[in-house]
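Narrative of activities, Objective 1.

The group set out to show that a structural description can be obtained from nothing but a protein's sequence at a throughput compatible with the screening campaign. Below is one input-output pair from the validation batch, recorded exactly as produced.
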Amino acid sequence: MKRLAAAALALAALSPMSALADGHMPDLEGREVVIVTENAYPPLQFVDPNTGQPAGWEYDAMEIIAERLNITVVYETISWDAMIAAVSEGQFDMGMTGITIREDRAEMVDFSDSYMTSQMRMLVRAGETRFTDAESFAADEDFLMGSQAGTTPFYVGVYEVLDGNESNPRIQLFETFGAAVQGLLTEDVDMVLTDSTGGEGYVRANPDRLAIIGDPLGTEDFGFIFPRGSDLVGPMNAAIASMREDGTLDELNQRWFVDYSFGG
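Output recorded for this entry:
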């Protein structure tokens, strides 16, 4: 599947460099921005088991962005399969849930610049020895893969692991990524493809039950999504650029991928 690591810049309505040319962030004067998310993709966004409240990398990033751009953020939740269409139709100002920047999606929504690059990995039960990589998984027709229809892991599984048949019975569909992981834990499926961001989050939360195996199956870039033509894209890109330049993105990565403990 194609990735748009370089093409993301072409989707922005205002370039980060022009927005930062005078050394200042755009001031959106307290504008309300309604952001929709799934709250099911640790450590980017999820319900924290320690507090029962939504938390994660993206929430912390948006808190910083809101301060830099002077916006007021309101959060809503929606299922993944409805998110892109809902944002495209203008039901929400913005969407965030570790969304891969892809050409087909860019026909429906505008993307911000990438704020994170991740790799596609194979998530399995801890101690898995029946297969060790994508090739050995594909070779045995008894092995089942759990996935969500329409997601990047689904297409990578179909076209890069299996035979290119989107109706292949070896693919078991789940409503959410979390449900697919639960299906893995209950042995309903044998493997779940995930980007390294989400996969590492689940392994950290379940170190005795889950593991990542095999080589990466390509890379993907994450971006926020907006209705086509949104005037928020440029300011968001400016904020992302400033966070990259001053080390804030690195600090968030340290906080959520290294320091955070899912165990309480």
